[in-house]
Specification:
- By secondary structure, the protein is mainly alpha-helical.
- It is about 50% helix and about 10% strand.
- The protein has seven helices and four strands, in the order E-E-H-H-H-H-H-E-E-H-H.
- The protein has helices spanning about 40-55, 65-80, 80-85, 90-95, 100-105, 115-130, 150-160; strands at about 5-10, 15, 110, 115.
- The strands form two sheets. It has a two-stranded antiparallel sheet. A two-stranded antiparallel sheet has the order 3-4.
- Strand 3 (about 110) and strand 4 (about 115) form a beta hairpin.
- Helix 2 (about 65-80) runs antiparallel to helix 6 (about 115-130) and helix 2 (about 65-80) crosses helix 7 (about 150-160).
- It is globular and about 45 Å long.
- The protein starts with a strand and ends in a 5-residue tail after the last helix.
Length: about 170
């Protein structure tokens, strides 16, 4: 969930906020004992989403709706854009096989080589969002997230996956 004090995740990576690690490259290197505010956690999340959106948008070659885009961005935020680029979810989506793409989202349920129930739950939520019908729209990749719209929906979705704030 949202953790305002840095901790080691199940894979042993020092993490803070909404799953922000040094690898996100958004200007913070979490250290054990470090604390941030909820506003800072949201700021880092927004920056990471903008950055990851710019990295994954060119990889998506098939028409995508806003729900599919949001689910893929959530997945990429969690597994990293490089892993997303190599994922069978992206491969199947770009090949036009929506059902296989959705099923492939569920494969990303491990951390440190072990199945983690939190990731199982997150992937089910991402898959459900991915499969929710919506009109096809091209994703936007602004340099800063606007208030409201799809960015607010994505941030709210990721926040809902992580639960309530804990100190």
């Amino acid at each position: 969930g949202l953790k305002l004090k840095a901790y080691k995740d199940v894979a042993g990576i020092v993490t803070i906020g909404y799953g922000t690690t040094a690898a996100a490259g958004v200007g913070i290197t979490p250290r054990l004992g470090m604390t941030i505010t909820q506003e800072e956690a949201e700021w880092y999340l927004e920056r990471a989403l903008v950055k990851f959106a710019a990295k994954i948008k060119p990889l998506i070659t098939a028409p995508i709706n806003a729900n599919q885009w949001s689910a893929f961005l959530s997945l990429a935020y969690n597994i990293g854009p490089t892993a997303f680029k190599r994922s069978s979810a992206l491969l199947h989506f770009n090949s036009g096989n929506i059902d296989k793409a959705a099923a492939s989202i569920l494969l990303w349920n491990k951390a440190g080589g072990k199945v983690v129930q939190g990731l199982v739950n997150r992937r089910k939520d991402e898959q459900a969002l991915f499969l929710t019908p919506q009109a096809t729209t091209a994703p936007q990749t602004p340099t800063t997230p606007p208030a409201g719209g799809i960015w607010a929906a994505i941030i709210a979705f990721i926040a809902s996956l992580t639960g309530k704030a804990t100190k």
